[in-house]
């Protein structure tokens, strides 16, 4: 898994954290220690939405062929 961009890893980690937090919140074990349950759920939902949109919007290339295609695309874009 060499040459995976840091942004890809960060977006994937943010999405995983948001999904785990959402699941734990639904199960009654929130990660965010906020007294007001409704506020905690809104914050959790906001994190999930933000991570989901970022993960959907960006190109997250994990496979070798996908990373090669990114390099090729970058070369094409830099040519003009």
Give a brief description.
The protein has 80 residues and is mainly alpha-helical.
Notable traits:
80 residues; mainly alpha; elongated
Mean pLDDT: 82
The SS-based structural class is mainly alpha
Structural shape: elongated
Provide the helix percentage.
over 70%
Tally of structural domains:
1
Ends apart, CA distance between termini: 30 Å
Indicate the low-confidence ranges by residue numbers. Answer: none
In this structure, how is the largest beta sheet organized? none
- Number of extended strands: 0
**Helix segment tally:** 3
**Which range does the strand content fall in?**
under 5%
Taking all Cα atoms into account, the compactness measure Rg is 17 Å
Secondary-structure element order, N to C: HHH
Written overview of the protein:
The chain has helices at 6-26, 37-57, 64-79. The chain has one domain. The model has no long low-confidence stretch (mean pLDDT 82). Helices cover 72% and strands 0% of the residues.
Produce the secondary structure layout.
Blueprint: H1 6-26, H2 37-57, H3 64-79
Helix pairs in contact: 1-2
């Amino acid at each position: 898994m060499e040459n995976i961009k840091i942004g890809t890893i960060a977006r994937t980690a943010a999405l995983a954290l948001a999904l785990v937090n959402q699941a734990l919140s639904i199960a009654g074990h929130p990660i965010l220690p906020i007294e007001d349950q409704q506020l905690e759920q809104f914050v959790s939902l906001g994190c999930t939405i933000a991570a989901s949109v970022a993960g959907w919007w960006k190109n997250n290339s994990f496979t070798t062929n996908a990373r090669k295609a990114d390099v090729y695309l970058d070369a094409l874009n830099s040519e003009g």
